Prior knowledge:
The protein is an alpha+beta fold. It has helices at 15-28, 59-69, 73-85; strands spanning 2-10, 35-40, 49-56, 88-96. The protein has one domain (2-91): Alpha-Beta Plaits, CATH 3.30.70.100.
Amino acid sequence: MITCYLRYEVRPDKFADFEAYGAMWLELMPRFGGIHHGYFLPSEGASDVALAMFSFPSLAAYEQYRKDSALDPDVQKAIAFARDTRCFVRYERSFFRPLLPEAA
């Protein structure tokens, strides 16, 4: 399994738009075989940072998602929404291999 960690710098006056953008991806990700672990919005500390995490069974599955999603009209709508609303300034993407508890 591979987990993608996203760190967004969100415009403080655009959190409602960012939440709408995140809701789009919460619905889109499973369509491509991914598991979305959610968006994490500021509560304490930095007020312009939001996080998101999603997983795929392998790096190859993630790469296939990138190819397939590039052709999806709903993904294009989500990308256009982010571009048009300018709800975030930038994002960073990192990949991790999770260590999870053994199944009982």
